[in-house]
Amino acid sequence: MEKLLSTKATCDSHGQDSSYFLGWQEYEKNPYDEIMNPRGIIQMGLAENQLCFDLLEFWLSEHPDAAAFKQENASVFKEIALFQDYYGLPAFKKALAEFMSEIRGNRVRFDPNKLVLTAGATSANETLVFCLANPGEALLLPTPYYPGFDRDLKWRTGVEIIPIHCSSSNGFQITKTALEQAHRRARKRNLKVKGVLITNPSNPLGKTVSRSELDMLLRFISAKGIHLISDEIYAGTVFAPPAFVSIAEALMEFDDRDKVLNQIHIVYSLSKDLGVPGFRVGAIYSNNDLVVSAATKMSSFGLISSQTQHLLSAMLSDKKFTRNYIEENRKRLEERHNKLVMGLEKAGIGALESNAGLFCWVDMRHLLASNTFQGEIELWKKIVYEVGLNISPGSSCHCTEPGWFRICFANMSQETLTLSMQRLKAFAESIERTRICSKSTGKSKKMPLSKWLFRLSSCMHDLNVRVSCEHVE
Ligand SMILES: Cc1ncc(COP(=O)(O)O)c(C=O)c1O
């Protein structure tokens, strides 16, 4: 049957079988619900921002015309329904460019004419890669990286990803040595390196890329004559110092600015900052006219519907709303982040210090039965099936050290987050007790799962929930 299809359609470079996506599938089979399924799996592997829906819904209730195809009391339905220009609605591009500036404290200005609209950052990243590299050429990416990149950057373009290995020893910072090593590894494989792609703030690390890293990256791409893509989809989620520095800002003060101007490209989207991933709103920003022109032609394959552009141009043009939203969103994210970190601390689990994003990069190395990726996957399976939390193992993000996990905190209620931390605490304690027990008996005896599940359920008695026993073997 597969022979009837194309090689692209049937090859496995999409990455669908990564534990990142498998975790989502397991969650779908048994999703937690406070009333309907209190023993189900809690989704902590999805970087969704659900914390400010009340603000969006309030704005909609105050501005019914925007969603009802009306402007100054007249219908604009026909105009919107017929609009199919791939340059996008000028009013929307202007509002989006201004929103991008506002998120960066208006320290940089974005020209709407240099924006290409795309159906989310997924499409923006793929389109950019199509414009910058040929099949068989390479991009360098710092690890750990967003698992979707294997699909977005490689699958249809045929471009290779060469990891820049970052390590916990310096908080996963990108170093010049690691960059040079990645470049050499690519050359050894006879791959022509066309660029470096970073996420700033980083997914999955949940922290901003420092000014010194950005300067070093600019010097590197200038020396090599290659591109730098900065995926800044989490720009509006920075809730604590150090402040976010966009590559656009670092570029303004870079000595060789004119030399690299055409090699710098920014990817953006409203999926995280505004919390509307279903609207599929993304963009490429580039000073390179050729890239803007080629990407605009390609954007025909993934345009944003004119209906969405119309609605969001009204919302983002409302400066009072955007100012308040940006501030409140940061405040709520910080509260959530702190709650997760405190919950982890109570469970004896640490996390990389972070200041942005919708997740933490969590250190569970001490819970591994063996310091291997096999050990990591075994631990992950226990956490998914027995503890009932879908989190993302570091190996799905191409981390080189086993035992790190990405845990999301903005896609659930406070109560669900509390419950998830109680489940995790009971689990971590059960592992600890097993170790003490096997040390004192001198045997490595496995604690029966029923025992820690018993303890877990009693610890949750207050919340009137019990953990799932459905998948326990
Ligand atoms: C770093 C990064 N880039 C791109 C995307 C895709 O975003 P979008 O929903 O806008 O396609 C994500 C989604 O999680 C992401 O984390």
UniProtKB/TrEMBL annotation:
A Pfam family annotated for this UniProt entry: Aminotran_1_2
Similarity field: Belongs to the class-I pyridoxal-phosphate-dependent aminotransferase family.
PROSITE patterns per record: AA_TRANSFER_CLASS_1 (PS00105)
UniProt protein name: 1-aminocyclopropane-1-carboxylate synthase
UniProt keyword Methyltransferase, yes or no: no
Pathway assigned in UniProt: Alkene biosynthesis; ethylene biosynthesis via S-adenosyl-L-methionine; ethylene from S-adenosyl-L-methionine: step 1/2
Cofactors, names only: pyridoxal 5'-phosphate
Coiled coil residues, start to end: none
MF (Gene Ontology): 1-aminocyclopropane-1-carboxylate synthase activity; pyridoxal phosphate binding; transaminase activity
Catalytic reaction list: S-adenosyl-L-methionine = 1-aminocyclopropane-1-carboxylate + S-methyl-5'-thioadenosine + H(+)
Protein source organism: Cinnamomum micranthum f. kanehirae
